[in-house]
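Private note to self, pasted from the team thread so I don't lose it. Backbone tokens:
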């Protein structure tokens, strides 16, 4: 991607040894319908959001087969295929949606294989750059789930393996099986429960992808004070704080609105002082 784009102001991060992306990505969960279920109210706007993200220099888009389900992946292909050089599309498998309110883990090897192969078709890819186990299934040994991703990788269907919603001990177990290059956990200025996982990623060179990057952060008095000082919104400061918090951080704020997308990506250019970072935690 162009070095002068707004997203490039965040700097870059390596995923594995061979993928370098701008450190401000896009999460494609919210381009689907209400409740992350079904088609978006404005499909054309959803496609515009995806195209505009790429124009702004976003070269890492994260999605999952559970978003819609299937809708987010399909929209990405409709909007962006054939994909521009350097665009990394990450997706996830291991959660199923029997109904709108349900998010059920399914880590069975047969399911993960079918999910990965279906994602390849929807995304019109020959290989998925980063495929993540969406959540551990308590009914299936972690080693069996990760082992199937290793087999898919050996077949050339996955480039790199990541995990999501993992604790430190679970991450260590997965890393005994294969190389894990990224962890995607909930983390924001109002929820630091994965601080130990972030520390492990920093230590060992893994990317840390915070989902719900805004979460409970908004309403924080220090965050609002920093927003006033910089003349921006609390949302932008929350994203800037994540970028300042750790060089391993790869925030993926999502939206179904072009206007919101542009403000989110502009966060890459905000520079918080050490004092502001400390005050925000």
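Design output:
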């Amino acid at each position: 991607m162009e070095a002068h784009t707004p997203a490039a102001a965040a700097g870059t991060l390596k995923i594995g040894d061979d993928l370098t992306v701008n450190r401000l990505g896009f999460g494609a969960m919210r381009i689907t319908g209400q409740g992350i279920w079904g088609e978006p109210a404005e499909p054309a706007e959803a496609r515009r959001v995806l195209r505009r993200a790429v124009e702004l220099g976003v070269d890492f888009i994260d999605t999952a087969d559970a978003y819609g389900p299937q809708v987010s992946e399909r929209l990405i292909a409709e909007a962006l295929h054939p994909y521009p050089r350097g665009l990394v599309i990450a997706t996830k498998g291991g959660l199923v949606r029997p109904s709108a309110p349900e998010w059920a883990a399914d880590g069975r090897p047969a399911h993960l294989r079918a999910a990965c192969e279906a994602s390849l078709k929807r995304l019109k890819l020959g290989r998925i750059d980063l495929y993540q186990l969406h959540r551990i299934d308590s009914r299936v040994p972690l080693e069996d789930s990760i082992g199937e991703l290793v087999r898919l990788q050996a077949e050339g269907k996955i480039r790199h393996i990541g995990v999501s919603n993992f604790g430190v001990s679970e991450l260590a177990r997965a890393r005994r099986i294969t190389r894990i290059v990224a962890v995607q956990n909930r983390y924001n200025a109002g929820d630091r429960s994965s601080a130990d996982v972030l520390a492990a990623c920093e230590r060992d060179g893994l990317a840390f992808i915070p989902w719900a990057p805004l979460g409970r952060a908004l309403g924080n008095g220090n965050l609002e004070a920093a927003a006033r000082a910089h003349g921006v919104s609390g949302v932008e400061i929350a994203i800037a704080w994540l970028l300042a918090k750790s060089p391993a951080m790869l925030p993926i704020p999502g939206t179904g609105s072009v206007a919101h997308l542009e403000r989110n990506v502009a966060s890459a250019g905000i520079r918080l002082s050490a004092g502001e970072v400390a005050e925000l935690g």
